[in-house]
C-alpha cells in the first residue's frame, strides 16, 4: 500500500473518532437540563411525599400547640389563682361591733355599719344627720354589774374612716361593753350598736387558793365508778383504789357534785 493511501486511512479514522467523541459529549451535556425523573424516580418521590404528609398529620394530632399568646397565658393563670385563693369580703352587710381583749390593759374593737342603718338615721333626724353627726365609742365598765346598772362610761372620739380601734383600759380583770354611736350637732346621742361583754385577763396570780386539783388518773377512776364502770385489776389494787377515792372525797375542800 502506498504512503498516500495510509495517510488517507489515518485521516478517515481521526474524522470518525472525532465525530463519535462529539456525539457522546453532546448526549452527556443534555442530561442536567432534563426533568427529574424517570417513572421509577417519580414513583419514589411520590412515596416519600406521602410518607412526609402522614408524619406531619400524626404530629399535628399528638403534639399540642407550642405557641400561646400572652393574653391566653395571663387569663389561664388568673383563673387558677382565683379558684385557689378566693377573696375575703371587707364587709358582710351587717351593723355590729365586736370587742376582744388583747391583753390585761388593752381592748380591740371592730365594727361595720350597713346602708340601712344610715338611711334610718337620716329618716329620723334629717337628710344630713349622718354626715353632720360625729362618731363616738362609749366604754362601759360592767365589772360585777349588769349593763344597765353601769354609769361609768368613757367616751372616745373616732372618725368616719375607721372601722376598728384599740382602747387602753389599764384595768386587768375587768369586764367591759363597748357602744358605737353618733352625736348630733345639738348634742343628741344616737345609738348604733353594742358589743359583746369582754373581760381583760389578770396580770397576777389567782386569788382562789382553796382548790385541790385531782390528777388525771384519780379523776378518771372517780368518774368511772360514779357511772358504774368497773376498775379492772387485781383485787388488792381495786380495794386500794376504792379506799383512796373514799379518803379523797372526805378531804377535798371543793366537793364535786356528781
Strand content: 15-25%
What's the CATH H-level superfamily name of the domain at 96-199? Immunoglobulins
Largest sheet: 5 strands, antiparallel
Shape designation: elongated
Give a quick set of tags describing it.
single chain, 258 residues, alpha+beta, five-stranded antiparallel sheet, 7 helices, 8 strands, disordered C terminus
Describe this structure in words.
This protein has 258 residues and is an alpha+beta fold. 42% of the residues lie in helices and 19% in strands. Among the domains are: 96-199, Immunoglobulins (Immunoglobulin-like, Sandwich), CATH 2.60.40.10; 216-251, no CATH class. The chain has helices spanning 3-29, 39-62, 70-84, 115-125, 129-132, 216-226, 235-251, and strands at residues 96-103, 106-112, 134-141, 153-157, 164-168, 175-183, 189-194, 198-199. Strands 3, 4, 6, 7 and 8 form a 5-stranded antiparallel β-sheet that branches. It starts with a helix and ends in a 7-residue tail after the last helix. Residues 31-41 and 254-258 have low confidence and may be disordered.
Short structural summary:
With 258 residues, the chain is α+β, with helices and mostly antiparallel strands.
Topology record:
Layout: H1 3-29, H2 39-62, H3 70-84, E1 96-103, E2 106-112, H4 115-125, H5 129-132, E3 134-141, E4 153-157, E5 164-168, E6 175-183, E7 189-194, E8 198-199, H6 216-226, H7 235-251
Antiparallel strand pairs: 1-2, 2-5, 3-4, 3-6, 6-7, 6-8
